[in-house]
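Hi W.,

Here's what went into the run:
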Amino acid sequence: MRPFQYMRPEGLDHAGQLLRDGARPIAGGTNLLDLMKLEVEAPDRLVDINRLPLGGIAPTDDGGVRIGALVTNSACAADLQIRRDYPVLARAILAGATFQLRNMATTGGNLCQRTRCYYFTNIDQPCNKRQPGSGCGAIGGHNRIHAILGASDACIATYPGDMAVALAALHADVEIERPDGTSRTVPVRTFHRLPGDTPDLDNVLEAGEVITAVILPPPAGGTQLYRKVRDRSSYAFALVSVAAVVRMDGDTIGSAALAFGGLAHKPWHDPRVEQLLAGQRPSDALFHQAADLLLEDAEGQGENDFKIPLTRRTLLASLREATGGAA
Amino acid sequence: MTRSLTMDRPDDRNRLDAMAQGVIGQPLDRPDGPAKVTGTARYAAEYQIAGCVEGVLVTATISKGDVTAIDEASVLSMPGVIAVISDERMTARAAQGGAGEAPVQQVRQVQYYGQPIAVVVAETFEQARDAAKHLKVTYRADDAAITDPHSAAAPTETYDEPIEQGDLAQAMAQAAHAVDVTYTTEGHNSAAMEPHASIAQWDGQMLTLHASLQMLAYNQKELADSLDLQPEQVRLVSPYVGGGFGSKLGISPEGVAAAVAAMQLNRPVRVVMLRQQVFQCVMRRSETVQRLRLAADAEGRLTGFGHEARVSNLPEEEFAEPVTQASEFLYPGENRRLAIELARVNLMTAGSVRAPGEAVGMQVLESAMDELANAMGLDPVELRLRNIPDRHPSEGIPYSSRKLAECLKAGADRFGWNGADRRPAQRREGEWWIGTGMANACRVHNINEAQASVTLMADGTAIVASDMTDIGTGTYAILGQIAGEMLGLDPTDVLVQLGDTDLPPGSGSGGSWGAASTGSAVFEACEAIREHLAERLGTTEAELTLKDGFATAGNRRVALPELLAGAEVERTGHFKPGEITEAFAAAMYGAFFAEVAVNAYTGEVRVRRFTGAFSMGRVLNAKTATSQCMGGMVWGIGSALTEGLTFDPRDGHIVNPDLAEYHIPVNLDVPHLDVVLVDERDPAGSPLQAKGVGELGICGAAGAINNAIHHACGVRVRSFPMTPDKLLAELPDP
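Here's what came out:
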């Protein structure tokens, strides 16, 4: 770990000023501190935002919910309103990490969790995300946990989190404070980026910006589920995960919001798949059609080829469950 | 005074059962437990020593070649940095278990990625770690490195003398039933909770090392040899060890580096391996490729038995994962071929990882046996019962006590085994396929030379002392119980002192030999004290009863302090393995029964029930023995489902060198573990009639899970660990 300056801002605007180049905000620190010990991250300044007034889970005027950026994963998953109205979110959070980590990890920090790519976390290996231009160790290396959708020649890493996958299915927004004191909101579905030629950028946050909250729209109702496939029962990242919010309209699918973890550099969603399912009578044929569309451009790297059939099967399980079973 | 026993023949006297205290075998709490769970037990790195500075190892980033230059100036100006040391005394590898001499020392000749090449010393750990990452090292890389453990290009040699009997090929051709299958297992890391750590202090004459080690008497020689010191100039202190599993059998690079630095700087130096370094440069279990050929007659009796394996290690390392060890004697079959090919690769040292040999050998053998049972349509328990040989199939020697059949029956009974219908994919609960499977357990019994002293104090309490280690196994508890039983004392009146080379040299912990070996040394010392007390009481040892602090003979009953009359009695027991080790095939046995659920969509496996019935000779403490068996079964779950070292084939670096990515089982992966201890005395095992237990619970466990997976869903996975991707390809459509 390299020496760094530790600062505690007086308020949000002050945080924005302190967050200049080479500075990083720290909340729970569950990911950042590990990466600093490995020197994957070497900020020269940590701006501790833990005492800023960014907590609380509160209703919004339009019937949704605002989750403060500093609400811990544990608190969010235990919140009665979240559990009642947004069960996919509670389930996704509880599918991730461990009790101890969830007690520290925050809503805003979790969105910014960095990839688990083996080559990203090893500073002796090439990685375009960690060190732009150094190459990609995972291509041609071990890539069992890597992306099958949206990858580039520069990077095949995946976004590792669970919470954001549920938020993508829920059409949540990320509320961001700019250094000039104004704020903007970005849909979770576009908050994370695809790697392209600039895999060093995980998301659309700009210098000095701080996540202040996640905004959930009014409850979608329907059947909500989160399926996470992993190598061990707990404390393992998703090989593939599916968040589904499915509303039935009689015996047809009213709407199906789907998001996927473990497939790409971001929580993956495909509006074409959602459109295909809407208004249709559930059937295995339909579900396979959805999988065909979802995986149309899927490309394995060898070791992760299995994710393609695994995604199909997990989607099938999810849609059968969410639509009340189909034959 | 020392009383020696070289064990040449069985000890049928069964002395422990003749004692009166009634503590041997009892499920007593371990005396070191409260200190461990309250954090007051001090582990190697936790000693606060004034002036201590911190060292961090620098490891190679090439897989083979030479270090041509180390630019010390590149870090010496960094804050707090004191020195960069790359000394010819430092060690590039850990010593193999029992080596007693320095391991390979040329740190500047790189033989594997992650090899220690230097140590950076600084005022704080963070400074040292930062500097270690920034040290500029120039290499001359040798492109001839072989860094893919499965590479066909690796030079191989036949290890040891293969066992060849009869004509296996003919037996296979003529068999009523036969299987010829090849399985693979991946490398494993011990992943002990406590990383390897040492604090070295040098006073100009004596080196003291607080360390985390399993075999101090050997480690003392290894460290002295590395440093060109006399063994008497080295003191090792290791009273608590946070898990070893073989990875701390030999002196490891951080200890030698700490010592070299302390001697050079004249300051205490602490070196703690980073978790990634524990994975990169301690010891791995070799990956294996194993071919099993089983030929059986119409009734399922084995007529041919073949177990051939390929394992790997670094050049110059003598160790080869002895995967056929239990195969030599567990099953019959007059036509036999057992052989191990050793491939030479540039990957970290392969050495002992919990139950070397049987851990991965038995899981594959027992999977193949299940394939044979299925091919015959025979209950796999019945197949095992029909294949318990009368004599060692190659050497013709008798078995010592062997309660395999009893374990099979006890385990099947406890589990509720139904062997009648073994057709796969018959039971479904929602989206989960449910199946059951079983396997034999078998692990060779080892004993090792050991000394221990027992002092009966004038107040009637006792002190047991040895440099023996307690690596979490319960040594403190059982040595107190042995002495308590023999001397008629409550174990709370017996103080057990371990883990210091100033004490008599014990057996060390490894190969499941600790209890039977150091325990026998304690037993011998106690027998000598009993003779002395009998003399004081004017009777014979055989007539003497010691119980609750009183000595009784005939109608005389005297409290020990009175009998001792102010004197204290110290005796040292010295136990040596003798001809007994050649006279019998001695081993521990058991049987595993597992129920698993396999997700029909995803191939995820959950172990739902797991029963093990084990026989290990006399049980010295039912609680710690049960815990050992449970620990082994957890290892079995990891070996079956999740654990595997992954090397980048391009440079041999480990891509999953931490506990987040190297998946040992977590609580949710482990169901209730049901352990049945089958009562046994093995007079050939030790004077205690005890054998080893530590490693038994892993030996075959993963095979039971493999077999249960097949029964659940019909997929036979011949590649461990059985991760979802490996099942997926063959799972029926959901």
